[in-house]
Amino acid sequence: MFVRGLEGVVVTKTTISDVDGSKGILLYRGYDTGELARTATFEEVAFLLLMGKIPTTAEKNQFSTDLKNNRILPTHVKTFIQALPKDLGVMEVLRTCISSIDAHAQWPPTIKEATRLIALFPTIISTWVQLVDGNEPLEPKPELDHVANYIYMLTGNEAKPAQIAALNAYLILTMEHGMNASTFAGRVVASTESDLPSAICAALGAMKGPLHGGAPTGVLRLLEEIQTNTTSLEEFLRAKIRRGEKLMGFGHRVYKVTDPRAIALRDVLKTSGNSDQHLINATAIEETATRLLEEYKPGRSLHVNVEYYAAAVMDALKFDPEWFTPTFCVSRIVGWSSHLLEQAENNRLFRPEQEYIGKKVITD
């Protein structure tokens, strides 16, 4: 049976996450992601996805130490990254460096390998950003946890608690989201019994596509248009909808109600003491846009999605738009790794069929 885009086709069974688009529920290993985003750290949720359980204090501390011990770029990668053409984008550099990390990686993948790659993603991204800006790359600070250290290495400044809380929540909420394009690409490669870096590179290639990893950039453009327009917010949005233009950050292929990740991220931003005016404005824009979309497009269920508040968080942190998708990868590497480890546990090569619809030339 042919199904365009494989929509609705079940390709595997998993214990990693449960995405219920009709009810607006997202669970990691059975735990509500909204609650995790409000109460847990990046390290705790990464451990949960990789290991299948909430860590004890000792396990969390050890996992945090393992991440910190693996942050330093190997010498050959430092040399390699400095020699790359400076006109490359961050995603190209990230993909290229990951493919050079371990020439001896083998099947099956291990949690130790996954932990190393999770730790290195922020270092690769921040090293390239600093080099392109003409700066000496910053060394990781061992006293800082994963999220705080990423902000420091990327911007050169230690973040405020509210900023760390906002990015921590975003990274938790985007760690994993079922059989999306990048996760599926990674599992297909892993099913061939290829190594972990190869499968991660396949996932990165899929994430680079604007239909998958580029959505927050479009939201940022919308927020900038709103900030500079001379009419009222409602007049501006009405005119945009009447012209048939899409409001980036609203609507989702899976969720038919408000994206639960957007709800959780909004709640964290409201309760973390974050006074950034852009974040305050984002809430007002959401309320007006949701009302107008229901008025002009009743029944379409065009609610806010996680990319909307992700853009607001990135803007508040003064992250360059080119950093948005790589930052998404800083979280999603955890979900990818969890899926690749699961694929290896009960592997079967993905080999779908095709339906030929071309002409047939019959010869004797």
Descriptive tags:
364 residues, mainly alpha, Citrate Synthase, domain 1, Cytochrome p450-Terp, domain 2, 2 domains, three-stranded antiparallel β-sheet, 16 helices, 3 strands, 3% strand
Tell me about this structure.
The mean pLDDT is 90. It is built from 16 helices and 3 strands. It has a 3-stranded antiparallel beta sheet with strand order 1-2-3. The protein is mostly helical. It has 2 domains: 4-212 and 334-345, Citrate Synthase, domain 1 (Orthogonal Bundle), CATH 1.10.580; 215-316, Cytochrome p450-Terp, domain 2, CATH 1.10.230.10. It is globular. The chain has helices at residues 33-39, 42-51, 57-69, 75-83, 90-99, 111-132, 146-155, 161-173, 181-190, 196-208, 215-228, 233-242, 260-271, 277-296, 306-316, 324-345, and strands at residues 17-20, 25-28, 31-32.
